[in-house]
């Protein structure tokens, strides 16, 4: 196969994926709207991924990093083992 043809077809394919297809399918997904917003716990502000808060859906963080906001003063993380 001609190397120029291979390079051109690769370039056309890359152009297609970068311009024709939407940049991301999950940015407009309502399931992830809450995930984009950081949360506060007392004096600690703007907590975000990978931390997960009790009232957020699981795709918003890693379940092992689930935080509980105790008395709205400080975050508590429960570690297993």
Automatic annotation (TrEMBL):
The keyword Signal applies. It comes from the Eukaryota. Keywords: Signal. Residues 35-80 form the Wall-associated receptor kinase galacturonan-binding domain. It is found in: Membrane. It comes from Quercus suber. This is Leaf rust 10 disease-resistance locus receptor-like protein kinase-like 1.2. InterPro entries: WAK_GUB. One of its GO terms (cellular component) is membrane. The keyword Isomerase does not apply. It is a single-pass membrane protein. GO terms for molecular function: kinase activity; polysaccharide binding. Residues 1-26 form the signal peptide.
